[in-house]
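User: Could you write out the 3D structure of this protein bound to flavin-adenine dinucleotide? I've included everything you need below.
Assistant: Certainly. Input first, then the structure.
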Amino acid sequence: MSYSAPIGDIAHTLRAIAGLNDLIDQDLAGDLDDDVVDAILEEAGKFASEQVAPLNQPGDVAGTKFENGSVAMPAGFKEAYLDWVEAGWGGLAGPEEFGGQGLPLTLAMAVSEIWNAACVSFSENPMLTTGVVDALALHGNDSLKATYLPKLVSGEWSGTMQLTESHAGSDLRFLKTKAEPQGDGSYNLSGTKIFITFGEHDMVENIVHMVLARIPGAPPGTKGISLFLVPKFLVGEDGSLGERNDVHCISTEHKLGIHASPTCVMQMGDNGGATGWLVGEENRGLNCMFTMMNRARLGVGIQGVGIAERAFQQALAYAQERKQGAVAETEKGDMVEIIRHPDVQRMLLDMKAKTAVARTLCYVTAKALDVAERSQDEAERARALAYAGLLTPVAKAYSTDLSVEVASQGIQVHGGMGYIEETGAAQHLRDARITPIYEGTNGIQAIDLVSRKLPMEGGEVVRGHIAELKEIVAGVRGSNEPSFGETADRLEDAISALEEASDWLLRTMSGNPDAALVGACAYLRLFGIASGGAFLAKGALAEQRDDNGNGRTFTVLARHFADQLSVEAPGLARAVSSGADGVLSQGESLLRAS
Ligand SMILES: Cc1cc2nc3c(=O)[nH]c(=O)nc-3n(C[C@H](O)[C@H](O)[C@H](O)COP(=O)(O)OP(=O)(O)OC[C@H]3O[C@@H](n4cnc5c(N)ncnc54)[C@H](O)[C@@H]3O)c2cc1C
């Protein structure tokens, strides 16, 4: 199944909803201008369609092969990756000082959506490498940066993030990997990490692992965790590769999806220990990780957008070809393409609207992170950082939940053929299913939203956000545009529901946190619906103002989302504020007795 990047939708979301052009106008985007943005999106789309998308299904079928400590990628991956590096895609948003192009994250996320849609397994590797670049650029010393960043930024070397151990997943407090100082500035690491994405593979000469570990004598819990850089091959002063380090893949996992992304068990210490170097200060490893968490979580949200877009395109193509007759007794006639049936139209519009909503949430969050990093105005930077903090768990969790829903609907559109692997629709669901789990499960995202982000500044950050959503909807109402139908009414209901649930949670969090946490996931979904629905409407208003001849895609989608999907919002608000009693008073005893 082919993939064609939806450049028009992406560009409109970047400009009219996320506000990429504010960055350009305020000189916060380097040499970027409209033409360069268009050229980058076009070129990425071309590369993705021609070289990456064709790998998706064969890569899923072949999977990676683990043998004698090495991992062989499926056919074609290495060649495509080397071409990708050669074309300069690795350094798009990387620091200019180390060979990157320093372009805004907002644009980089749009391009990342394109890679993920083409093949999510292929895109895992650059995503993890970007995480290592961010960690090193922010917290590494000059020597580590000079040695490792240029090749990581270009993509010639790849990176991993090694946090998880068998007993330490969502809660890293009890991780056991040990790092002993060797007296020469380096550390000796030993321990086992599980589930490490691209921990080993054959596409690059060196792999740079970022490992969380404990130094002997460190305080217990999160205050005793440090971050280390551990290369697969040690690097000489002249940059040449030296001795093989004692960090080895000892097996790979067999899993539901992303078969072309190796998920590795990594062992350090079987041959004397792995040599590593401290990144940031001792015992501040989790803080280092937290500073990059917004970006990493957003990266997973974008994976959700990419998979959803691919699933939609595949379902649309199938619905335009597959023929079935009408089943309603009132309808007669010949067989028609299933896309002519109202329920199939509804499913396809659901899929496109959900994908568009997830895209808005991710791009708006990326823009806030850009402002937080690039603005000259300190107060504006602080405001943007708080806003990005508020939106990040929603962009990660709601977008990935939507990707699973969209991929599942994609199977439904195919009928029985969707359940048959050969069709390719099932792969999207299998691939999507990891996204609500890793980089902090969506349950953990909801807890973060309710317990840390919502109470920021006494609730003022969320109130400011709600005020902005209301302003957009006032614009919809004021436009008197008949094609909006009841969009304004439905979105007003959703935003009121969000306001009501936010107030209830702010009151409840301090006195009865368990009750608040029962409603956390429903609240996150409600937040995503109200925000994404309004953001889509913002895109629709801009589309009508510009009347750029591209039709009314965003108006149709905003209306569909408001009519069919945002109507869930008042029910979710009720689940937040009155759903806890049953769970807390009777649920636990029932579960324990079961
Ligand atoms: C394919 C794949 C790739 C991965 N890649 C990497 C990688 O590259 N690097 C890396 O370090 N890790 C990686 N991981 C690990 C991943 O990040 C963890 O699986 C994830 O964080 C969840 O941890 P866990 O599996 O231990 O689940 P658990 O923490 O055991 O969670 C199980 C369930 O309990 C819930 N739960 C746990 N604690 C709480 C709480 N306090 N309150 C409410 N609910 C809670 C969770 O939400 C979840 O539903 C990967 C995992 C997979 C499957």
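The chain has a mean pLDDT of 96.
User: Perfect, thank you.
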